[in-house]
């Protein structure tokens, strides 16, 4: 009925399928309940600005978090300081240069289990044409039928050329920026 070649091929396909690691489940993020913001100090006063548009992709397996992966694309022109003139200034070449670099992105290389329901996340952050290796802790918690991923990534704005020319002076706008995120996702 079945030829020996057919049986060998079927056995080989089955063996390959069993040898492949389990894939993490792709989650659907809820933009209405999620947020990404940047917190910095201007003249030593904390300021928080939100990115109104972003796309988060999370493939997460709680049984095998190391098989998980995450990425986010942030729409730079959606940066909102709460004032139209400030928003326009932030898009200029000296700051984000939103016309030339309309997206910032993060792509994970590794997610490792850590204490207290956290993951240690390692990956590459790209802003304004510059890419850097970054790492940060991320909290994962279940809220009803959703998974919530929260974290804060400290960066130096000057490492990404955010604030060129006279704006390299950190006495007006601090070099330290914290990118905060909360992504709410479902299966």
List keywords for this structure.
about 190 residues, mainly beta, Lipocalin, about 10% helix, disordered N terminus
In words, what does this structure look like?
The chain is 12% helix and 51% strand. With 187 residues, the protein is mainly beta. It has a single domain (23-186), classed as Lipid/polyisoprenoid-binding, YceI-like (Lipocalin), CATH 2.40.128.110. Strands 1-4-5-7-8-9-10-11 form an 8-stranded antiparallel barrel. A hairpin with an 8-residue loop joins strand 4 and strand 5.
What is the gist of this entry?
Helices cover 12% and strands 51% of the residues. The N terminus is likely disordered.
Which class best fits the helix and strand makeup? mainly beta
At CATH's second level, what is the architecture?
Beta Barrel
Compute the CA-based radius of gyration: 21 Å
Q: Looking at the structure, what is the overall shape?
A: elongated
Helical percent range? 10-25%
Protein name: YceI family protein
Domain Lipid/polyisoprenoid-binding YceI-like: 26-186
Pfam families: YceI (PF04264)
Keywords: Signal
């Amino acid at each position: 009925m079945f030829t020996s070649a057919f049986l060998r091929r079927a056995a080989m396909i089955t063996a390959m399928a069993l040898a492949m690691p389990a894939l993490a489940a792709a989650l659907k993020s809820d933009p209405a309940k999620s947020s990404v913001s940047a917190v910095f100090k201007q003249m030593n006063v904390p300021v928080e600005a939100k990115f109104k548009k972003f796309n988060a992709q999370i493939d997460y397996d709680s049984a095998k978090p190391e098989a998980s992966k995450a990425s986010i694309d942030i729409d730079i022109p959606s940066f909102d300081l709460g004032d139209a003139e400030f928003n326009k200034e932030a898009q200029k070449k000296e700051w984000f240069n939103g016309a030339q670099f309309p997206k910032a992105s993060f792509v994970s290389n590794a997610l490792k289990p850590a204490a207290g329901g956290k993951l240690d996340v390692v990956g590459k952050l790209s802003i304004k044409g510059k890419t850097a290796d970054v790492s940060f802790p991320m909290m994962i918690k279940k809220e009803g039928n959703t998974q919530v991923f929260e974290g804060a990534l400290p960066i130096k704005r000057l490492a990404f050329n955010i604030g060129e020319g006279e704006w390299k002076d950190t006495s007006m706008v601090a070099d330290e920026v914290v990118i905060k995120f909360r992504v709410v996702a479902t299966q």
